[in-house]
Amino acid sequence: MTAQGPSITGAAPKAVFRVEGVKKDYRMGEVTVSALREVTLEVYEGEFLVILGPSGSGKSTLLNIIGGIDTASAGRVWYRDDELSAYGEAQLTQYRRHHIGFVFQFYNLMPNLTAEENVEMATEISRNPLPAREALRLVNLVERGGHFPSQLSGGEQQRVAIARAVAKQPEILLCDEPTGALDFTTGKVVLDVLNEINRSLGTTVIVITHNASIGDMAHRVVRMMDGHVRDITVNAKRKTASELEW
Amino acid sequence: MRVLDRKLLRTLWRSRGQSMAVAAVVLCGTACYIAIASAHSNLELTRSTYYAHYRFADFEIMLERAPLTSVFRLESLPGVRQVRGRIVEDVNVDLEGADEPRIGRIVSMPDRQEHVINDICLLEGRYFSEGNPNEVILSKRFAEANRLVLGDRIEASIDNKKHSLRIVGIALSPEYVYMIRSVQELVPNSERFGILWVPQEFAETALDMKEACNNIVGSVEDPEQLDAILERAEDLLKPYGVFAKVKAGNQISNRFISDEIKGLEVMAKIIPGLFQGIAALVLLVLLNRMVRKERTEIGLLKAYGYSSRAVAFHYVKYALALSIAGSLAGFAVGQWLANAMIRMYVEFYDFPLLRSRVYFDVLARSMAIGIGFSLLGALFAALRAMRIRPAESMRPEAPHYAHRTLLERVPALWRRLSFTWKMIGRNVSRNAFRASLNAFGVMISSGILIMGFFSLDAMDYMLKFQFEIAQREDVKVSFQTERGKDALYEAARFDHVRYAEPLLQYPFEVRSAWRKKDIVVIGVPRGARLQRLINAKQEPVDVGATGLTLSDRLARDLGVGVGDVLTLKPLMGRITKERTLVVNQIVEQYLGSSAYMDLDTLSRILDEPFAANAVLLRVEPGMERDLSRHLKDVPGVAAVEVKADSLKGLQDTIEMSAQISNTMNIVFAAVIAFAVIYNITAVSLAERQRELASLRVLGFTTQEVGRILYHENFALCVVGLILGIPFGAGICRLLVSAYDNELYRLPFHLDTETFVTATVLSFLFVVLANLAVRRQIRKLDMVEVLKERE
Fold first, then answer.
1. Contacts with A168 from chain B: Cβ below 8 Å
2. What is the mean predicted confidence (pLDDT) over B410-439?
3. Do A69 and B422 touch (CB under 8 A)?
4. Are A66 and A43 in contact, with CB atoms under 8 Å apart?
5. Which backbone phi and psi does B150 adopt, to 5 degrees?
6. Does B415 touch chain A (CB under 8 A)?
7. Where are the alpha helices (DSSP H) in B533-649?
8. What is the mean pLDDT of chain A?
9. pLDDT tens digits along B387-403
């Protein structure tokens, strides 16, 4: 069922992730809830992937497992040639540290640190970081670097969060409802930034959202429902963020 | 059970680590208070009952020799209730198979049993029988330590004559509850020193004191009048060579017990406030956090119709529950500790009926203190809970505004800080109260440690000062009367003696303006090597050809300094001429308070070319025992003291009792430090879960995330330690001034080791608290935490 997505380079697409028969069950007290029931999926290097689905469809769970902050109950996950699902806690931490950038719906910035310091924090632990100011420039926030999160608007906070994620120069940027808490206009600015990062740095970007129109800007769209991948479509023509409507 | 109460129980269970830490502080405070306050009540009550029952004297007058008739005249003085003339003399006691000399203090008692002042409490055997003057009643511990039983005989050497005495009774006396021969001995050595109560008839004959006495004890109607009465008594007894008047307050045994009681009283006042205050502060932090976290729930409860008061009381109950749980456990531990303390007191004090009891007033007071403080701690949170309005509570709390810290004013420094330290800096300034509480906890904890170690340091130094720095002889030989140069030469010629130095001790009355005191002036040869004088800078100084050297306490008591003039009047012998002398220098002295003078000058004041009543000897190593055995039988020798023997056991005893209290102190300090740091860190962690979880997502390891909390704790620990040093030293200063009297005073001496140990232990407590939090950091669930809206 794997649909061949377009490769940025035009050569045969290389998979960054291979997800094979992944299941995830949560024990909620006495009952067990299945968040993922057998998901198989490949994510290609350099692509902009949007995972669509209503809440409870399992898209966040899938993203968390790929990002190494959660583990699968069954099935296997490969990051390039390494089996992620075999990693221990310490290996997962190193994996997140060096390969993954996360962007969340609610930003999760350190309230005690200024925008620039929030970015610096990420640069301190990575091997080959972008300078903090450089990262802020990517999201057009250099002049707001000295402000604390509480002094920034939601959109600005989200851009700081993106700058923080990008500053580590990750290969993959995982975004969980990045525009969920933002209004339409601000949301588009954020999406534009993500697109720009995908384009200029070649970072693989995975965005999960329940907003179907965002799918139009992706290379591929994965639709999820009830813990399954329902279908995968390839966009013949991608829209830019500014062309999106919702 | 009401629903709210059920919620309370679950909250207690969910935060059991923190709840237990708070309860532990309450427990320690309660236990400590109960132990100390019970011991205090116990000692106080036992002492007053004992003193009343056996008529402990209000005063004691020591003199050369007075006819018994003068005692009757004393009794007729207005305000005097009862008087008894007796004979008191320290003598050598020979026991079969004992190689160390024993000193027995002969104390005469009426031939037939009467209700006298300073009566004895017979534990075994009987009182003297008529017509048998050679009977003796022994003090309990001396008998026990030397395995002497009723019917055994002991030999007392009095004036070079041996008297065989049969033991007919074993007794205790209110005069010797703390049985030391002189203040220099510090702790009892029951093997080497005991009391020999003998019939008056025997004492009069053996000591050649027919119809006379050398010690008068008495009681008065009104203790306020004691000074005036003693003044008049002295006038009356002037012809008989009064050399010391001792009020009950300065009686050695009583002084030591009083100081112990006073110390307990002070501790009972400080300790509960300290612990319960800390528990209250920690509760304040915990409950505030809880109310903030449960904002929505509180609003919901109110929306359902719960009154503000009911909701507020819910949080008060949390505090009460912890306080009551801690108190109840504290009662048990406290009672156990009280028993342990009584057992320790029984080691040192001879009371006939010292046993541990339960003092319900102490229990009630402790409970009241615990509850009072916990209410204080809960007050703030309860008020906050009352103020929450249902509609508002459903909305998220207004975001807090981070602000710049002082450190940022120095950008050069700030820029160099890693983000961990930036986070710490901002967090400390954002939660200044919590941060100060954290440092405060360490300060109190290290203060308690320093205070605990200080008592050992001070005692050690006191011994070192007394027995190594100031007094450097191996053996001290005292003569019955003043002797000339021949005695010195004779002593120097004994086998194994390497060096001999004379000493002349003589009682004087010193006056400065209206201040007057009976003291012992010690004549020391110039350039003395064995009896050295040490000034405040800890340097040995020479006694000087003229003038007086005073101990600092004596100088203070007389209100004089270097250059002031004192009038001295001999209190014994035929010379009564007064002299005026200039104070030359002030020296340190911790045991006793004396004046020193050049031996030759002192001899001349007494109208002798050379006089000495003691000789200090330096002896070939290991030969002290041989020498002392030999010296005991030399005519004119009153007592032989081997320093090594006095020192033996002294250090062990002090160390043992210090170890017990230090173990307690370390436990208390650990509980305080741990409870404070652990709770604050746990609260901080709970509050910053989201922040810290997102760091984990970014790829920070548990260790790196933990570091943000750990380093903050260590940094605050350093602050607490820096504050703890002056705080601890301050408590020690307080102790020094509390234990400062004519008999002894504590040196203000703290070893570097004490600070090092306190620092290391404090860091260890912080590490323990950090380890306890570490588990929670490990458990941080990134997915769960990040899912929730802030």
1. 698-699
2. 85
3. no
4. yes
5. -50, 135
6. no
7. 552-558, 599-605, 624-632, 643-647
8. 88
9. 888 777 777 666 666 66
* B308 vs B554: CA distance, rounded Å: 65
A108–B783 C-beta distance less than 8 A: no
- Distance CA(B455)–CA(B663), nearest Å, equals 13
Q: d(Cα B548, Cα B565) in Å, to the nearest integer?
A: 9
Give B-chain residues touching A165 at CB under 8 angstroms. Answer: 698
Residue spans of the domains in chain B: they are 57-241, 431-470+644-790, 497-619
Q: Which tens digit of pLDDT belongs to each residue from B508-517?
A: 989 998 888 8
Helix, strand, coil share (%) of chain B residues, nearest 5: 55, 20, 25
Q: Are B786 and B690 in contact (CB under 8 A)?
A: yes
By DSSP bridging, strand B80-86 and strand B212-220 are antiparallel
Token representation of residue B471: 């007094």
Phi/psi at B23 (5° precision): -60, -35
What's the DSSP call for residue B697? H
Nearest alpha-carbon partner for B36 in B341, B471, B251: B341
Interface test with A, best of B704, B785, B786 (most A CBs within 10 A): B786
Could you report the per-residue pLDDT of B458-467, keeping only the tens digit for each?
A: 988 988 898 8
Query: Hunting for tokens 């010629």 — which residue is that?
Result: B493
At what angle are helices B252-293 and B432-464 packed, to 10 degrees?
A: 160
Domains of chain A: 46-69+96-243 (3.40.50.300)
Write the DSSP symbol of residue B396: P
CA distance A175 to chain B (A): 12
Instruction: For tokens 């409490």, name the residue.
Output: B121
pLDDT tens-digit readout, B555-576:
999 999 999 999 998 887 777 7
* CB A219 within 8 Å of CB A234: yes
Which of the 8 DSSP states describes residue B591?
B
What 3-state DSSP class applies to A179? coil
Tell which residue, B34, B453, B12, B8, has the closest CA to residue B275: B34
Complete DSSP assignment for B54-122: TT--SEEEEEEEEEHHHHHHHHTSTTEEEEEEE-EEEEEEE-TT--S-EEEEEEEE-SS----TT--EE
- Residue B404, sorted as left (phi over 0), alpha (psi -120 to 50) or beta, turns out to be beta
- Contact by Cβ (8 Å): A90, A47: no
Q: What H or E segment, with its residue span, contains residue B162?
A: strand B161-172
